[in-house]
Amino acid sequence: MTNAIIMGGQLAGALSAIGAVVFVVVKYAVVRPIQNYIDLRTDQIQSFSNGGKALPDIAKSLESVHTRLNSISTRVEAIEAQVYVTTKASRKTV
Fold first, then answer.
1. Does the structure show a pLDDT above 90 at 45?
2. What are the extents of the domains in the chain?
3. CA–CA separation, 68 vs 65, rounded Å?
């Protein structure tokens, strides 16, 4: 019985060592070259196009532009309403 336990432990140790060697070989012979290839082919696209700013900076700027356009739109609508009221009043007096 003791010999069976010792043999089982030796077998488990040998399989663990073989598994570790296979893992290292696969990682450095297969996975690492694929990762390097992907990194090489997926360089940052047009890194100079936004002045080096990150995407959240651009999103914040776009939100600012959106707010400004809404403000302008509100003012234009108010001016149009005043012009309409003035035009309507001047037509009644004629």
1. no
2. 1-43, 53-94
3. 5
